[in-house]
Amino acid sequence: MKTVHKFVLKSYLGPMVMTFFIVMFVLLMQFMWRYIDELVGKGISTGAIFELMMYATVTLIPMGLPLATLLAAIMTMGNLGENYELLALKSAGMSLQKIITPLVVVVGLVAVASFFVVNNSVPYSFKKIYSLLYDIRQQKQALEFKDGIFFNGIDNMSIRVGRQEQRTKLLHDVLIYDTRNVNGNMTTTVADSGYIRLSDDKRFLMVTLFRGNSYEQTRSYQWYDHNGLRQNAFFKQDARIPLSGFDFERTQANLFSGSQTKNIVELEHDIDSLKVITSSATERSYTPMLSSYFFMYEQQLAVDSVKVDLSHKQRVLLTESIASLSLQQKSILYNEASNMINNSRGYLTYDEDVSKDALSQLYRMNVQWHKKISLPFSIIIFFLIGAPLGAIIRKGGLGMPVVVSVSFFIIYYIISITGEKMAHEGSIGALRGVWFSTLIILPIALFLTYKATNDSNLFNADLIKDRLRDFADRLFKRRNKDEKH
């Protein structure tokens, strides 16, 4: 490897690693901010939170890697141009293509590696995230009492504490409503003080109360007219109440499945299965209805589709025939057509909701399949945008490159999200929905590469000014000519 190539490669790898970690940190903070309400106040261990962050980082690679590639390319080539190193290399007879050759090789390897990451690691990480979020949502709020406020985090129980000592955790003025009895009896406990805590395994509520009374209201099936109240005074009362939901139980990740949790082989298998389901459902419903009801006298009906094509002359004759009927005959004809349409609904032999769900899954599977293929191409295209753009603007650091990179990426991201949403709804095909954003930025990459290769300015201000002046002069002359006529 030439010394120049080593120098350029060394200049690129540092910004690439730095920008990748910065972008991933920003995206991860956005992810954590989205689920912060579900994580706080439930006593979840630090290990579980770090595990969630680790898997979330993997799932954010398809979004962060193209942006990091673009930003690093602009910074590298901008630094070389700002320090006149790029000019010195071109003066020595090296073209821009030769200068960025090692960078193209590195970005190509990164693009290939990104496919294996998004095909293998990302689906597994989504499974783990879905599993962790489900377990976190099932986790009940930690046992925390606030003075004068009822705690309702335990099923069929409400606990109010008048005051809590922070150092000893002793509770004063305790009031407990207990409706756990299957017979409908309710127990109200009032105590001067006590301790309420979870057991070490978080499976039991340990209650110790001092100097209080317990009131149990007994009810029968005639509870509205006949019920009783029993009082029990105590100096000390201990209770061990079984609980569920306070211990963090882990669910198997394989139980969670979706379009994002499958690799490309599994997606292809599911796509083929969903195509068979949708086509067979349509064939089972519409074909018998058309053949045995609407076209019961047609012997040569196509199996796959039915197409009735009337020529212009036939349509005119049909219209004239209907127009020649009397009002009573028209009424009978319209009633028969209406009855046939209403009765045809009974020939639909499949569940419409099941068919819609299968189509929705098919659209999502197709979108995910194309997204896995398009990621490596988007990384390469973003590099082809960043490297020439950095050579043209000749500005390094985190100022101008960040502004330009984020602007390009926002445009790309908006187009990508819009296309994917339309593809999910079935408005357009998955091929157009996913690849449209990539095809939009491809001409930009080719244009910038052409400009940087020929050492031309991105926009010739003088040329644009002259063209606008000529256009204004022609427009003014035409207006004067029209006014004279």
Overview of this protein structure:
With 485 residues, the protein is α+β, with helices and mostly antiparallel strands. The protein folds into three domains: 216 residues, no CATH class; 93 residues, no CATH class; 103 residues, no CATH class. The protein is 61% helix and 13% strand. The protein has 14 helices and six strands. It has a six-stranded antiparallel beta sheet with strand order 1-2-3-4-5-6, with no helix packed on it. A hairpin with a 7-residue loop joins strand 3 and strand 4.
Brief characterization of the structure:
The protein is an alpha+beta fold and 485 residues long.
Core attributes:
6-stranded antiparallel sheet; extended; 485 residues; 13% strand; 14 helices; alpha+beta; 3 domains
Please render the helix and strand layout as text:
Blueprint: H1 3-34, H2 36-39, H3 46-59, H4 61-82, H5 85-91, H6 96-99, H7 101-138, E1 150-151, E2 157-164, E3 171-178, E4 186-198, E5 204-219, E6 227-242, H8 264-294, H9 312-323, H10 327-343, H11 352-393, H12 400-425, H13 430-453, H14 461-484
Antiparallel strand pairs: 1-2, 2-3, 3-4, 4-5, 5-6
Helix pairs in contact: 1-4, 1-7, 3-7, 4-7, 4-11, 4-12, 7-11, 8-11, 11-12, 11-13, 12-13
Structural class: alpha+beta
Helix content class:
55-70%
Total helical segments: 14
Cα shape: extended
Tell me about the biggest sheet?
Answer: 6 strands, antiparallel
Task: Outline the low-pLDDT stretches.
Answer: 296-317
Could you report the average pLDDT, rounded to the nearest whole number? Answer: 77
Helix and strand pattern = HHHHHHHEEEEEEHHHHHHH
Through-space gap between termini: 74 Å
**Order of strands, widest sheet:** 1-2-3-4-5-6
How many domain regions? Answer: 3
Number of strands: 6
Rounded to an integer in angstroms, the radius of gyration calculated over CA atoms is 36 Å
Q: Estimate what percentage of residues fall within beta strands.
A: 5-15%
